[in-house]
Amino acid sequence: MSGLILVSHNYARRSTLAALYESILSRRGGLWISWNGQCDTLAPDTPRALSFRHGSRFDTLTFPLTQQELEEGYHGYVHQGLWPVFHQRPDLARFGANGRRHYRKINEAYARAITEYAMPDDVLWIQDYHLIPCISLVREAGLLNRIGFFFHQPFPSGQGFEAIPDWQWLAESLLCCDLIGFQTLQDMNNFLLWIESEYRLERLSATTLRIQGRVITTGVFPVGIDLEDVAYLKESNSCRQTEQQCRETLPEQTLLSGGHLDSSAGLPYRLSALEVLLRAHPEHEGEIRLLQLAAPDAGYLPRAQEVAQHLESLCGELNGVHGRFGWYPVSCLTHAYSREEQAGIYRAARVALVTPLMAGMSLMAKMYVALQDRSNPGVLILSQFAGASEHMDGALIVNPYDPDAIADAIHTALRLPLQERQNRHARLMKGIRRLDCHWWADSMLASLTEDAEQDSLALQESGARVTGRYGRIRY
């Protein structure tokens, strides 16, 4: 039976995404390959140490990066270069040869880890644009395993992908996949239209193509959350204490805003919307508070520092204009809260503003809804350009560039009667239960592995021996 190797960026960071991976692997078993979150100094021509740990439910294989790889490859090439391009802001992208070199080194480390431990019948599930070059590197190493790649980020429309200097090397790596998964139908269509305009290919179906001798399938697999993880967070002492503290110290009509601290977050538009709301509906003065979560690790240096400083300035201006003795409209929270503490804040908020200008998964929106008290739930206001908007029936959908529309949505959300809030919450939860993290994994891996057993039998019958570029003899 085929084994699963899940390949992701960071195993060490405690996040909703890491919790999803852990839940999926706990149920399915397999090997999780990831950076360990640490930086070490590596001597030239010395292989970095691989740390394998056998677990009761799944195994892990981790390794360190160098400081230069983290700063130049990850914070530099990925987040100053690729991130803006994938979020339709190529004008903000900054690429450099040094960044690309260290980005490739990161992917070479992943490729070596994969080739050292992958068996011929394993399927590889590689996560997100951090690891695009890794795909072709494992093919060059001789691995014939089926490879699925999932884009957590939106795929740029038109020829946006070509804003990446030397984009061809990334595109050629993507074309080494067997399956490419996307968050939304729009993202998949953007990819298919673009790839068809640049390469000679044969369309075998609406979602399958033959290109450069390989059959590649595409699909839409929206990422869901783990409701067992949500239940754990709800019952934790930190969640309960934080929720109680929020309810005792904050107005009943508390608004919540969060997300990455970057140019795609749409934070200035949210604050402008709050000012529009207070001017158009002065009855909300003294009755509402916007909590803006702005922890330093919610962004990517150095962009996060610039955005945080700008955000604090905007919040100060808004509080100066509309604040009064004993009340101010915005609290900018820079403390790094634990997941349990964040859950308590989510539960205490009457409205959540998840209005990025462009986003992929939008897990915050789903976590907010799932953490609500169904007998008295809050209301979700969601950007039409968030990846989750295609399948979150019950949210108030807004144009994140339009402060007037956001202000109207806030006013509507604060005035919705209990029965309407309950109805919207029930509809949202129906979708969240149906498309949870296990549906995400099951549906994508089912598509990926449908031919894996035949591939495995063919390998066994041929007795194939493959010598990889990293020197290990594979059977």
UniProtKB/TrEMBL annotation:
UniProt GO MF annotations: alpha,alpha-trehalose-phosphate synthase (UDP-forming) activity
Entries under InterPro entries matching the protein: Glyco_trans_20
Xref: Pfam families: Glyco_transf_20
Domain of life: Bacteria
Family annotation (SUPFAM superfamilies): UDP-Glycosyltransferase/glycogen phosphorylase
GO biological process: trehalose biosynthetic process
Annotated family: Belongs to the glycosyltransferase 20 family.
Protein name (database record): Trehalose-6-phosphate synthase
Organism: Pantoea latae
